[in-house]
Amino acid sequence: MTIKDLLMWDESLFRDSDAFEFDYVPDQFEFRDTQMRELAFQIRPALRGGRPLNTVCKGLPGTGKTTSIKKLFLEISESTKKVVPVHINCQIDNTRFAILSQIYRKLSGHHPPASGTSFKQVFDSIARMIQEQETVLVVALDDANYLLYESEINRVLYTLLRSHESYEGTRIGVIVIISDMDVDMTQVIDARVASVFQATDIYFAPYGPEEVYEILKQRVNQGFFPNVISDTLLRVIVDYTVNAGDIRVGLDLLKRAALNAERATRRQIEREDISQAFEVSRFLHLAHTIKSLTDDDRKVLLALAEISPTMTEMTTGEAHKGIHETVKIGYTRFYEIVEKLHALRILDLHYRDGRGRTRLVTFRYEPTKVIEYLQ
């Protein structure tokens, strides 16, 4: 390494570090044209003053659902004041009152009074603002699986979608974003909500290797100065990302690897920077995915992780027997959860060599780390 290869104390490899943040909305957003067109079609009636069509966006974590919605909402905000898009993060705001407070803030520019304000008063104000401003509301409930507990999703949808019955002229559409592929909204919502929800499903498939490469390459061009990472090492990060099944792993790897190179005062990322970064980034998918699991999923996963050190290679039958004292669950339901955890890339399911079709269960992550993130 020569002097010119060393990074000075006041220099950086980052042209725009925001390009590697998970909530960043890129100017160029590829490989979701079909989904974006379908979403635009669902919202189109609102542009003419009508009620938007309701939508369910479904796909595994890190498949572009949130970015698609934010990109579309940004375009709407820049083109018209007659449609008000509101994006709600249901991991944070997961009660009806919290969600209505965010809608109130979007419409008024400030939060409702912190105390002494009832749910009805907040919604009365929301409906009045919609009427007075003659606007149409489009609400995206992101990570809506956090509303499934205690039927909160029904209370939220009923309030929003039946508002026109009590407040003439209000027009509200809802986009529900789900990362749990097992959730069937037709089974989750009750009859009084189903009659007005009638949503169209839009599926977000996992990105393929070349799509991951192009997405990360765009972020590299936008976020780094030239020649910070070679194409060969970018392909290494692509492999890690595809294996995790979550584009956020790749973004986090790029950011951490560049920070490691800066710490070593280098002008380029080296393989050791990626290896060190992966020791942290590889658990990102695990952490985000665990947040989206149901109580039953978490109980089964925890029980499997606890017995894994004593049963390093388990058939599905042995695994079910091993956790049965801890989690009282039938084999059919157990196997459904195991298949889900396999689809989410926490567990691996593979057939044993030899006779029969026995399937083995193994962990993609160290069981101790799984337990740590579950707790």
Molecular structure report:
By secondary structure, the protein is an alpha/beta fold. It folds into three domains: 96 residues, Helicase, Ruva Protein, domain 3; 172 residues, Rossmann fold (3-Layer(aba) Sandwich); 81 residues, Arc Repressor Mutant, subunit A. It contains 17 helices and eight strands. A five-stranded parallel beta sheet has the order 2-3-4-1-5, sandwiched between helices. α9 packs across α10 and α14 runs antiparallel to α17. It is globular.
Please name the defining characteristics of this protein:
alpha/beta, Arc Repressor Mutant, subunit A, 5-stranded parallel β-sheet, 11% strand, 3-stranded antiparallel β-sheet, globular
In terms of topology, how is this protein built?
Elements: H1 33-47, E1 55-59, H2 65-79, E2 83-89, H3 96-108, H4 119-133, E3 136-142, H5 152-161, H6 163-166, E4 172-178, H7 185-188, H8 191-197, E5 200-204, H9 209-223, H10 231-244, H11 247-263, H12 271-281, H13 284-291, H14 295-307, E6 314-315, H15 316-323, H16 331-343, E7 347-351, E8 359-363, H17 367-374
Parallel strand pairs: 1-4, 1-5, 2-3, 3-4
Antiparallel strand pairs: 6-8, 7-8
Helix pairs in contact: 3-4, 5-8, 9-10, 9-11, 10-11, 11-12, 14-16, 14-17
